[in-house]
Amino acid sequence: xxxxxxxxxxxxxxxxxxxxxxxxxxxxxxxxxxxxxxxxxxxxxxxxxxxxxxxxxxxxxxxxxxxxxxxxxxxxxxxxxxxxxxxxxxxxxxxxxxxxxxxxxxxxxxxxxxxxxxxxxxxxxxxxxxxxxxxxxxxxxxxxxxxxxxxxxxxxxxxxxxxxxxxxxxxxxxxxxxxxxxxxxxxxxxxxxxxxxxxxxxxxxxxxxxxxxxxxxxxxxxxx
Length: 224
Prior knowledge:
By secondary structure, the chain is an all-alpha fold. It has 2 domains: 2-168, no CATH class; 179-218, no CATH class. The chain is 83% helix and 0% strand. It is globular and about 70 Å long.
């Protein structure tokens, strides 16, 4: 009788441990999805809309814009957190599958985690974020800001190492385009997507070209 009770206790403990590991893995996948969606939302969000909402007193928009002022730091923190979470989830899943299937569990864990990460931690959150980038960026700006602050020492160290390697390879700093070129590109893009009429696009482009015009080209002689 005592032996049966011990056996039942061992089975219960084993199932409890597996259940805990499974829940931890699911939580890690949720966190990974949060990181992936946050990266997509913040990089795709409309800065113009965020600026407009900030001027109306929206604090969430202000936090999002603060994050976007330092894109290297933002992306570094998100990538660091996302990779750490995915590696931990994969390690726990491998341990769990090894206890179930022996050495074959490594292959099973790799297959299952690849599908889980791809669907629930990459495609699903990124698809949602790209469909609602500005709204999502406002919602996640606060938590992401806290994560960036917490990981900043590690991120800055990694950035220093990466910067040194790039300098050794002769790679120059980030390209910067004049504001008028970015505006011209945005106008062309919105016109191609049907968001701006041709006449309006021409007028906006003409405004950007004003600095290249001579006064004589736009003045009309008094006799005319």
